[in-house]
Amino acid sequence: MGCYECCMRCLGGVPYVSVVATLLCFSGVALFCGCGHQALTETERLIENYFTRNSQDYITLAYLIEYFQYIIYGLATFFFLYCIALLAEGFYTTSAARQTFGEFRSTVCGRCLSTSFIVITYFLAVVWLLVFALSALPVFFFYNMSSTCRTVDVLSETPSSINQLCVDARQYGLLPWNAMPGKACGMTLSNVCKTREFFLTYDLYIAAFAGAGITLLALLTYVVSTTYNFAVLRYLGRKGLAPRC
Questions:
Q1: What is the pLDDT of residues 97-150, one digit of tens each?
Q2: Could you tell me if 77 and 199 are in contact, meaning their C-beta atoms sit under 8 angstroms apart?
Q3: How far is it, in rounded angstroms, from Cα 99 to Cα 132?
Q4: How many folded domains does the chain comprise?
Q5: What is the DSSP letter of 181?
Q6: What is the pLDDT of residues 33-54, one digit of tens each?
Q7: Is residue 229, in this structure, part of any structural domain at all?
Q8: Closest to 184 measured CA to CA, from 168, 197, 199, 170
Q9: Which residue, 3, 16, 23, is CA-closest to 96?
Q10: What is the percent of the chain with per-residue pLDDT over 70, rounded to a whole number?
Q11: Which residues contact 102 (CB under 8 A, 6 or more apart)?
Q12: How far apart are CA 110 and CA 229, in angstroms?
């Protein structure tokens, strides 16, 4: 066998769909976790500097942010290990790889493993769909804030009107209702929107939202890949090529 034929057989054993899904998962999780972690830190700083005067008003928010950051650490670790497991499963169940090693057959254990991955990945995709939707909430908040700031800038020549334009952090559950002032209005709001903290936090939440979408796409790709692998293994089992392990 020549070098070219050997390389083609090796490349034929690569589960390309699983590889693409793994790259998408790594990049999406890294974007979501990294940007989300920093965005939470910047959010705490933004609330502390511009929406409240008493540190006791945002202490609950600070605790929640800290808990969410620990959850982000766990998510990053879990998805890294799970994506590696799915990639290994893709190599194991790829029919071309079995042909390469001269063993075109499936086992009962292999089919059970594929079924388990299908169920777990489908469950994760449903859960992550909820995470994807929730990650849009801070983007919506900062979009509304930015839109209000643009309106304030347009109406800046009529101070009596712009003072009625406010963004109230208490309405979004970021602060308790007794927090003072809890909101930013008029030119104060416009000045907040021009700060580095606002632009940085807004961009980080957009990046985290995009990362959540990429991760969801990766999980859906994994669902398709694992389902196909299971179908191949089940077909081989019906052909009588499935010894028990």
A1: 455 444 444 555 656 777 888 899 999 999 999 999 999 999 998 898 888 888
A2: no
A3: 39
A4: 1
A5: B
A6: 999 999 999 988 888 888 887 7
A7: yes
A8: 168
A9: 16
A10: 78
A11: none
A12: 10
**Strands, E assignment, 86-216:** 166-168, 183-185
Burial of 231 (0-12, 13-18, 19+ CB in 10 A): exposed
What domain range is 222 assigned to?
Answer: 19-82+134-235
Residue 201 lies in a domain: yes
Of the chain, the percentage scoring pLDDT greater than 90 comes to 30
Whether 39 is in a domain gets the answer yes
Helix, strand, coil proportions of the chain in percent (round to 5)?
80, 5, 15
Token pair listed for 26 = 């790594």
What is the separation of C-alpha 151 from the centre of its chain, rounded to a whole number of angstroms? 32
CA 135, CA 142: separation in Å to the nearest integer? 12
Q: Nearest to residue 21, comparing CAs of 229, 223, 230?
A: 223
Residue 51: inside a domain, yes or no? yes
How many beta carbons lie within 10 A of that of residue 179, not counting itself? 21
Query: Do 90 and 227 contact (CB within 8 A), yes or no?
Result: no
Average model confidence (pLDDT) across the chain: 80
Whether 203 has a pLDDT exceeding 90, the answer reads yes
Residue closest to 20 by CA, chosen among 184, 199, 205, 214: 214
Q: For residues 218 and 24, is the Cβ–Cβ distance under 8 A? A: yes
